[in-house]
Design goal:
about 50 residues; alpha+beta; two-stranded antiparallel ribbon; 2 strands; about 25% strand; extended
Length: about 50
């Protein structure tokens, strides 16, 4: 997997910040969830699957 493409975005406070932008293929859209990403849960159980 390659790193995301850096983009400049406005954060919730209106400040500019650089963030990685990753795109997904539409055939994998069913894997997206409405929940917020949990880095601790990813490290605990998702990283090995990823």
């Amino acid at each position: 997997m390659r790193a995301g493409n850096p983009v400049t975005v406005h954060d919730v406070d209106g400040c500019l910040t650089v963030a990685d932008c990753c795109l997904f293929r539409t055939e994998f859209a069913h894997r997206l969830t409405a929940t917020e990403w949990d880095p601790a849960a990813f490290l605990k159980g998702g990283k090995t699957v990823f």
